[in-house]
Amino acid sequence: MEIQLASELPRVKAMVGAQGSSRPRLVTPGEVISQDTSFMRGHGTYMEEGVQVASVAGYVTRVNRLITVTPLRQVYQGAVGDTIVGRITQVQNNRWKVDVNSRLDAELRLSNIHLPGGEQRRSNLEDERGMRGLLKNGDLVCVEVQKITDDGLLRLAARSTKFGKLSQGTLLAVSPSLIVQDKQRMHDLPCGARVVFGANGYVYITPIIPQEQSSSYTVNFEEVPVDIRKTIGRLRNCIKLLAHHSIMISPTSVMAAFDLSTEQEYEVKDLLKPNIMQHIAMTTVQMMNE
After folding, report:
1. Is the dihedral of CA 78, 83, 89, 90 positive or negative?
2. DSSP 3-state assignment of 41?
3. Fewer CB atoms inside 10 A, N or C side of the chain?
4. Which of 71, 1, 9, 2 has its CA nearest to residue 276?
5. Residue 167: helix, strand or coil by DSSP?
């Protein structure tokens, strides 16, 4: 058993916000948000006795005269245009069922994928018979939300070469509310790995593959160098410790935690120790606020 005293860790300044700083306001259910009746009621709020009250625990967001509360923990609802990561759960007639960390499995139709060969053509009977050759149960895919039906079913699409099957990497599930909203979801980080920050909370880390060597539905079985595997493992543990302490996850925060863990010369496995997780998380927040 390894024991490390808190006094042996590098000193960290107290995480107290400066006066006048505009930080998100955290509220709990039943807490009064505003007594100004001119504000419009948004998601996560309700009116009671003429005042606006929070119905969920989360951060208050104000856009013009609209006030909403974003929950700290929530089930992914989906939005058109979101880039997400999912896992194939079932192969059906002309479509795949995909687990996307939502209340319902999403739907990926054969007609909405970029078929092998690069040519733009309609799927035929031969393509339908070979669906398991493209994607089978357990495969991970990167897709885009194309449509949301009235009952909340997400219909997916992979009509571009940047979407398709994922291989040679690791998957990590975090709360969707912790993923920073960004149009660009795929990032090649300076450390030598590619990270897909799925809007649904599924984060996928993989080695950087040149575009000319990538293929939408083939699996690369080449051996990944040890240093790249260690980098992927370090990134995974950094994202895990950020999520454990409810810190927003973005390329900037992940690289800050990654660089800090490297400077402190922590081993990859050390990043799973509670005291080191807390130290890295607190220092990362402090660096982000400076």
Report:
1. positive
2. strand
3. N
4. 9
5. coil
Helix (H, G, I), strand (E, B) or coil at 185: coil
- What Cα–Cα distance (Å) separates residue 6 from each residue in 2, 137, 162, 278, 279? 13, 46, 45, 11, 9
The two beta strands, 66-71 and 40-41, are: parallel
- For 15, list phi and psi in degrees, rounded to 5: -85, 75
Q: Which of the four pLDDT bands, split at 50, 70 and 90, describes residue 23?
A: low
**Tokens linked to 191:** 């450390």
Q: Which residues on adjacent β-strands are paired with residue 158?
A: 113
Residues 6+ apart with CB under 8 A from 134: 113, 116, 165, 217
CATH of span 25-71: 2.40.50.100
Task: Identify the band that residue 89 occupies on the pLDDT scale cut at 50, 70 and 90.
Answer: very high
**Which tokens hold the place of 57?**
């625990």
User: Coil, strand or helix: which one is 222?
Assistant: coil
- The residue type of 185 is R
Structure tokens at 45: 């709020």
3-class state of residue 203 by DSSP: strand
Contacts of residue 124, defined as CB under 8 A and 6 or more positions apart, other chains included, come to none
Q: Are 266 and 277 in contact (CB under 8 A)?
A: no
| Beta strand segments in 116-242, E | 140-148, 154-158, 164-166, 170-173, 186-188, 193-197, 202-207
Query: In the chain, what are the domain boundaries?
Result: 25-71
**CA separation for the pair 215, 162 (Å, rounded):** 9
